[in-house]
Amino acid sequence: MRPIFDFTSYLFDLDGTIYVGGKALPGAVDTIQTLRDRDKKIMFATNTTVYTREEVRDKLIQLGIECERDEIVTALSVAGMYFRHYAPGAKVLLIGSEAMTEEMRLSEVDTTVDPTLATHVLVGLDRSFDFEKLTVGMNAVRSGALLIAANPDPFCPLDTGVIPDTWALVRAIETASMLQTHDIIGKPSRYYASYVLNQLDCRPEECLMVGDRLETDVELGNSTGMYTALVLSGADSEESIARTGIEPDYVWASIGAIAEEARLQPSSQVKEQI
Ligand SMILES: [Mg+2]
C-alpha cells in the first residue's frame, strides 16, 4: 500500500467527505492543516451548481478551513472552461441558479435567453424550473442547441429532505425534445478531471482523490489514473464496492484517517528523513 503522504496533490470531495450539512466532519480541519504543514497541493471538488466558488470558499472558512478560490472546483467552473476550450464562440442558454449566471460571467462565456440563437443549453439545479423553462429549453434543443448537463446527479440530499437535482431537469428536456444530452460536465467526467489536473499542475499518479461516492469521486480518480480513497462518512459503504465493482485504493472510516496517520508519523520526523 502506497504511504498516504506519498502524493504531491490531494483532491477532496466536500459533502459527505469534508462536511455534512453545516458541520465539518471529525478530523477534517486537522487533516487539511496536516497537508498544508507538509506543503501539499490541495483542491476541493464539488458537483454543486447552486454555489459560486467564492460561496464555497466562505463556507469552508466558516468551518475553520482556510483556502483560496482557485483551490475550489465546481461543476460550474468546469463548465466555464468547457465552453472556452471546447466550444469557442458558444452562445449558452442557462437553466440554473444565479451562481450559474455568475460563474459564466467570470469565465467570460457568452449567454443568451433566445432559444433560436443558443448553440448550447446548460442545465443545473434550478428551484424555479417550470413549464416555461422546459418549453424554452426544449425549443433551443429542437433548434439545434447542444444539451449540456452541469452534472449527472438525479437528486440532492439536504438537511430537510431530498430534492430533484440537475439530471431530473435534463431528462425532462430530453424527453420533450426527443434529443439526447450531448455532454456531462460534473464528476466523474474527463472534463472535470482534466480541469483539476491542470489546476494542480500534476500527473494523475501524483494525486489522491478522496470522496464518499464511488460512482462520482472514486470513478473520476480511477478513470484518469489518480489514486483513490473512499471515506465511509457519507453516501457509500463497503458493500457499495461489491455492488458497483468500483474499487478504491484505500477505504477509511473518515477523512480523519490522514490526520491520524500524521500523528503516527509527525512532520518533524518527515523533514528529518529528508
Ligand atoms: Mg460527496
UniProtKB/TrEMBL annotation:
EC number per UniProt: 3.1.3.-
GO cellular component, one term: cytoplasm
Residue positions binding substrate: 187
Superkingdom, taxonomy of origin: Bacteria
Cofactor note: Divalent metal ions. Mg(2+) is the most effective.
Active site (record annotation): 13, 15
Catalytic class of the enzyme: hydrolase
GO MF term set: metal ion binding; phosphatase activity
Keywords: Hydrolase, Magnesium, Metal-binding
Binding site for Mg(2+): 13, 15, 212
UniProt cofactor(s): Mg(2+)
Gene3D superfamilies, sorted: HAD superfamily/HAD-like (3.40.50.1000)
Biological function: Catalyzes the dephosphorylation of 2-6 carbon acid sugars in vitro.
Family: Belongs to the HAD-like hydrolase superfamily. NagD family.
Protein name (Swiss-Prot/TrEMBL): Acid sugar phosphatase
Organism encoding this protein: Paenibacillus cellulosilyticus
